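Summary for the lay section of the report: proteins are chains of building blocks that fold into shapes. Here we show the chain for Putative mannosyl-3-phosphoglycerate synthase and then a coded description of the shape we predicted for it.
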Amino acid sequence: MRLGPIIPCELFGRVQICPVQRVIEIDSTSSTVRPVPVTPAGDVIISIEELAAIQQQMVIVIACMNEDDSVIEGVLSGIPGGCLVIIVSNSDRGLDDKYAAEVRVLSQFCKETQRAAMIIHQQDLEAADAFRKAGMPELVSSAGTIYPGKGEAMIIGMALAALTGRKYIGYVDADNFVPGSVNEYCKVFAAGLYAAKSPRAMVRISWNSKPKIRDGRIHFDKRGRSSRVVNEWFNKLLNEYTDHLNSELIVTGNAGEHAMTLELGLKLRLAGGYAIEPYELLNILEQYGKSSTRPGAPLSRVSTGASGFMANPSVPTMASPPSLKRSDSGIVQVLQIQTRNPHFHESKGEGHVRRMQLQGLNVLYHSPLTPKALRAELAKFMEDQDDLLNGERPPCAQIYPPVGTLDFGVFFDLLTANSTSFRQFLTASMPPQASLISRP
Ligand code: GDP
Ligand code: CO
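The coded shape description reads as follows.
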């Protein structure tokens, strides 16, 4: 894969947010032919071998809820062979047990491809109990089940991923209609995580287009409506903390498809429902955006020479191509990468778009990083949109403790002993008693 240059533009404390990079070639010449990983122009080339090595260390979590089996099967077909799949389902389990059908689809896929995978249901009472006893009672409702919501499903996926010993986690929606897009997302995850210099890195996908059908014609809309609004407010927030105004730095506030190092993911507080994606970015800034020399400041303001951290808006030059050498400098890197394939997914209607937007804006409103004046401006915007009544405060999303605070030994013991929905599919070459997860 060939990506456009990583431009290390903005540093907020220890957080480096890179402007969007393009995928230039989905498949590029291997490094044995072209040994230079970074070209003079700054393009990053990641060979097939290097992508495969990262994918061998990556878990892909698919959160699903009542998608068609054929769509899920298509998504599975797009996930590169080295990645370990974990499905977290919140599908109906009535007379027509959708979950049982998903288990069959995954089992069949694993048998055909000789791949290993895991699946679990979100309303598994024993899984909820494992979370409660392992130190995350916040995730469990008074009915004894894990709360519904995409964020909650992603938390379950991350806890399981942590038990696999793999280094990276990526998230892919189950309602992707185009398996080729899924394949590109996973390659981009691997390429971005390879290219990132820091062991604390996140790659967020900015899809090329989100096609809609209007008047019988396909329109390749560039931005979803909710994304446009959430990104705009994200950028307003960041511009409170920088002298290098870039009102379009954040293009992935709502990125459903994204990946990160588990080293980073396990430290983040995650939000429930659809607030999870914008809140991940916000929480990175809340935790790592502080300047060590200015403890009072919520985010360190970026200005040349300030507190040892500098914005570096320069594009890599011929004289000094950036290297891909890893360094544990404590920087958290956020890459935003625009894919080539369109994001074709199930359209869930106007109400759904509004809900996503509202949940994104709510976390921005409540963040301690948001200055008072901006908060008031945001509340006014939400009132004008009829999302808030005059003077009403937006509801606060559920914010969970970091998954890394779980007692993983307790979680593993209870889950493997008691869970009724958790299934693992092994390859024929693995002993029948083998497990994809282990007690840490
Ligand atoms: P959008 O694509 O951002 O508009 O959001 P979607 O509603 O399509 O959700 C993205 C993915 O998350 C889909 O695959 C959904 O099935 C899944 N999802 C949404 N809510 C839940 C939930 O409560 N639990 C689980 N397990 N998955 C969910
Ligand atoms: Co969707």
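Put simply, here is one thing we learned. Residues 173, 175, 345-346 surround cobalt (II) ion (ligand 2) (CB under 6 Å).
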